[in-house]
Amino acid sequence: MTGEVSAGEASAGDAAAKKVVIVGAGPAGIAAADALRAAGHAGEILIFGEERHTPYDRPPLSKQILAGTWLPEKAQLRTSEELAAADVTLHLSARVASVDVDAHQVTLESGEQVAYDALILASGVTARQLPFGHHLDGVHVMRTLDDALALQTNLETAQHLAVIGAGFLGAEVAAVARSLGKEVTMIDPLELPMQNVVGDEVGSMIADLHRHHGVNLELGHGVTSIEDNLGRATGVTLDDGRTVSADAILVAVGARPAVDWLQSSSVPLTVPKEPGAGGVRCDSSGRATDDVWAIGDVAAWWDPTQKRYVRVEHRQTANEHARSCARDILGLTPTPTMTVPYFWSDQYDIKLRSFGFPSRHAGFHVVEGALGDRKFVAVYTDESDRIVGIIGAGMFKAMNWWRQQVLDRQVLGEALLEKQGS
Ligand SMILES: Cc1cc2nc3c(=O)[nH]c(=O)nc-3n(C[C@H](O)[C@H](O)[C@H](O)COP(=O)(O)OP(=O)(O)OC[C@H]3O[C@@H](n4cnc5c(N)ncnc54)[C@H](O)[C@@H]3O)c2cc1C
Question: Whose CA is nearest to atom 39 of ligand 1?
Fold first, then answer.
């Protein structure tokens, strides 16, 4: 049997009749239902999602939807009719409160109990909050469609947006707010935007990009409080005592795995000091424990090549996990896991693309183009000069060639020689 999925592949086995319950109606949950059906699964599939909206994609939230260039419907992943046609039962506004692994059942917040043969945990992550200010009008996070629409509405009247956190999400929202003509201040305790992920050189380029577009950068500063007037946010105070006025504030300080509902269960979680902390601890096929799998942002899968648990908050990983886990549930040959993580980030007119693990680098080399032109491929290497990741913009073909070098765990010198010879 090959790694390819063919419809009906699983139809002969008992596995094909299993009742599969999926918790989370985000991209991972929907992709898992698709993958199960594509692999020939004939049994019941039930999806429980706590949000009220039909399943939608998140990357457009901080880009086209906030900018108002897309209506929310365009980000929809599946309509209810499409899911019904695939014989997938979707329950919206249905939060799962707990799971009993021994009894093979989940309990909804409503008290209803639902039995399963296989359970897929696809509950994603939730936005991290600061210890202050979140109750105030004008303070936002950016995780859900409702979050994006609330900030969009606020920006119709607000003049000055303060973005706390210069990660990819904060940077994308800052870029959209500038395109809407808002005054924007972006604040981060690190010295450069996205520094943890992209390193100093690309971080400097992103800082220049935002300055060029008129963003006021307050880097190297934390926020100590959010100021308000009668319950409405009016600004933030920085750790050096200065106040930045703002009538809209985005808190973009990362996310934490949505596992609160699993705390009373025996589902294993990664321990706080491990990378991917707090995620569901899975083997390299996504299995967490008997008949329970975890996929997408919430899942920390064992990566045999790195010999560690890896939790990735990227859209493509959700799809890859879903395909691999569906095959494992059905007892089919798993697809290869832990391909190269991929993410993109749109800021102004550039689309940054990243493959692999650039954050784990010891060396940095621009191998194509130039950072100053914002058209480049940068290669990130480990201590042995092995390529661990790449980041680039505007050089699609070259990026694809270098992506293969990341997949092959190629040594940079050898890769360069090969490229010169080709
Ligand atoms: C604004 C934004 C922009 C992004 N941009 C990019 C990008 O440009 N490129 C990229 O690669 N990635 C991007 N991402 C990340 C990408 O969207 C995620 O990796 C992807 O959504 C993960 O899918 P998921 O299904 O695992 O989790 P989620 O999308 O978080 O979905 C999980 C769902 O489960 C629900 N849920 C949680 N707990 C329960 C429960 N107990 N019961 C029922 N339902 C529950 C949640 O409400 C949620 O709807 C972005 C994310 C955001 C928020």
Answer: 123
CA 172 to each of CA 168, 209, 264: distance values in angstroms, whole numbers, following the listed order: 6, 12, 37
Secondary structure letter of residue 24 according to DSSP: -
Question: To test ligand 1's pocket by mutation, which of 58, 95, 168 has the most ligand atoms within 8 angstroms of CB?
Answer: 58
Q: What is the Cα–Cα distance from 309 to 331, expressed in whole angstroms?
A: 23
Q: Going by DSSP bridges, is the β-strand pair 387-393/342-347 parallel, antiparallel, or unpaired?
A: unpaired
**Under a CB-based contact definition with an 8 Å cutoff, are residues 134 and 223 in contact?**
no
Instruction: Tell me which DSSP letter residue 334 carries.
Output: P
The ligand 1 site (C-beta within 6 Å) comprises 23-29, 48-51, 58-59, 61-62, 95-96, 122-125, 142-143, 169, 258, 261, 296-297, 313-316, 318, 343-345
Tell me whether domains 14-126+256-329 and 349-421 share a fold: no
Asked if the 14-126+256-329 domain carries CATH number 3.50.50.60, the reply is yes
CB 75 within 8 A of CB 145: yes
Q: Take atom 26 of ligand 1 and give the residue whose Cα is closest.
A: 296
pTM: 0.93
Per-residue pLDDT tens digits of the chain, which is 422 residues long = 333 334 456 544 566 689 999 999 999 999 999 999 999 999 999 999 999 999 999 999 999 999 999 999 999 999 989 999 999 999 999 999 999 999 999 999 999 999 999 999 999 999 999 999 999 999 999 999 999 999 999 999 999 999 999 999 999 999 999 999 999 999 999 999 999 999 999 999 999 999 999 999 999 999 999 999 999 999 999 999 999 999 999 999 999 999 999 999 999 998 766 655 689 999 999 999 989 999 999 999 998 888 889 899 999 999 999 999 999 999 998 766 556 889 999 999 999 999 999 987 889 999 999 999 999 999 999 999 999 999 999 998 999 999 999 999 899 998 887 877 77
User: Structurally, what CATH architecture does the domain formed by 129-253 represent?
Assistant: 3-Layer(bba) Sandwich (3.50)
